[in-house]
Amino acid sequence: MEKSNIDIQRIKKAAKKIKAIASSKRVEIISMLEDGPMNVTEIHRKLQVDQPVASIHLNELKCNGYLISRRDGKKTFYSLNDEVLEGILNCVEDFF
């Protein structure tokens, strides 16, 4: 039997990226941000979750490249990183 050439580290990285958008709340956040940037207060109110919960979801999305953030005074506004989202969608659609 031949040994596989698949790099396990690449698989782990891909799994982490996909897992980050597997949460229904995170998909809701992505959907909300389609209309433009929002801050964490706006997001947690629309999601109807506590602010720390919204922040955890936002951080996971941002750390995986799906969101871009910018500071405006004391507020942080989040927006979609369209390039990364398109890339993951194209990858999944092309494969399946």
Q: Secondary-structure blueprint of this entry?
A:
Elements: H1 8-20, H2 24-33, E1 38-39, H3 40-47, H4 51-63, E2 67-72, E3 75-80, H5 82-95
Antiparallel strand pairs: 1-3, 2-3
Q: What would you say this structure looks like, in words?
A:
This protein is of the alpha+beta class and 96 residues long. It has one domain: Orthogonal Bundle (Arc Repressor Mutant, subunit A), CATH 1.10.10.10. The chain is 60% helix and 15% strand. The protein is built from five helices and three strands, in the order H-H-E-H-H-E-E-H. The chain has a three-stranded antiparallel β-sheet with strand order 1-3-2. Strand 2 and strand 3 form a beta hairpin. It is elongated and about 60 Å long. The two termini are 27 Å apart.
Helix content: 55-70%
CATH class membership: Mainly Alpha
Strand content: 5-15%
Overall morphology: elongated
Could you please say which CATH topology applies here? Arc Repressor Mutant, subunit A
